[in-house]
Every structure is written in C-alpha cells, then in structure tokens.
Amino acid sequence: MTTKLHRTYYPKADEITHDWYLIDASGQTLGRLASKIAVLLMGKHKPHYTPGVDMGDFVVVINADRIRVTGRKMEKKIYYRHTGYPGGLKEMPLKDMLARHPERVLQLAVKGMLPKNRLGRKMLKRLKVYVGPEHPHQAQNPKPIRLD
C-alpha cells in the first residue's frame, strides 16, 4: 500500500509579480477601504498566497482627503503620538488630522491591519497615498480598481 505525498507549494522569489493598483478614495468609508487595501498589500487576493512570503502588490490611493467616516468619529476618534519628552503625549481628533494630514489617516488605518513585524513594515512601504487626484506613478501604469 503506497501513500501519495502531497507537497506544499512555496512560491520562489522570481515567480512573484508585484502589480500596481490605483484606488480612488472619494466617498469611501475609512475602515472598509483600509481593509481592502491591506488585502492587496498582503497578497491575499492571489491564488498562491503564503503568509510568510511578501506576495503583495503596490497600491496608489488618490483623493485621500475625501474619505468619510460613520457615526460621530470626526469628534470622538483621537490619534495619539508622543514627542519623546516627559509629558509629551499629544492628541489630535480625526477632524483636525484630516485637515492637516489626510494621507496619514489612511496610512495609520492600513498599518493597523497589517502584520506587526518586518514583513508588515515592508508591505506598508508599497502603499502610496496622495491628497489630490494627481500621482507621480503614471509610468508604472496602475490598474484602476472600483471598490463598491
């Protein structure tokens, strides 16, 4: 009686392709948009997804200043940072953060959905967020994606 061995497929570095995607954030809900971007960055949409391998794609997001949130998050959601000095904890509500740094809001939302290790930091570098409709990645010919 012979048994068949099932071998696990492990993608090689030269077999992995990193595509470019363009996402328009106008009118999109922040959390739902961030989770879809995180899936693209991790490569979970590919059939040969492997958790320990960087299979993700590049994602270019335009119109980051036009995202929306539900409920009372504009006043209630607070972003914290620390200056490094004693008593240096700073806080900023979402409304002020969108006014000053709208691209940072989306980057922080996606960062929270990626793995907390070296691989996650590498994936986050593939996210390019821009406030307006223009971006400098025309040469890469990103494929537009509708997230409805």
Count of alpha/pi helices:
5
Q: Which CATH architecture would you pick?
A: Alpha-Beta Complex
Classified in CATH, the superfamily is Ribosomal protein L13
Helix content: 25-40%
C-alpha Rg (nearest Å)? 18 Å
Folded structure, characterized:
With 148 residues, this protein is α/β, with parallel strands linked by helices. The chain has one domain (18-145): Alpha-Beta Complex (Ribosomal Protein L13p, Chain: A), CATH 3.90.1180. 28% of the residues lie in helices and 18% in strands. The chain is built from 5 helices and 6 strands. It has helices spanning 30-42, 73-76, 94-100, 102-111, 118-124; strands at 20-24, 58-62, 78-82, 89-93, 127-129, 143-145. The strands form 2 sheets. Strands 5-2-1-6 form a 4-stranded parallel β-sheet, with helices on one face. The protein has a two-stranded antiparallel sheet with strand order 3-4. Helix 1 links the parallel strand 1 (20-24) and strand 2. Helix 1 packs across helix 4 (102-111) and helix 3 packs across helix 4 (102-111). The longest helix has 13 residues, at 30-42.
Keywords:
148 residues; alpha/beta; Ribosomal Protein L13p, Chain: A; four-stranded parallel sheet; 5 helices; globular
Write the layout of secondary structure elements.
Blueprint: E1 20-24, H1 30-42, E2 58-62, H2 73-76, E3 78-82, E4 89-93, H3 94-100, H4 102-111, H5 118-124, E5 127-129, E6 143-145
Helix pairs in contact: 1-4, 3-4
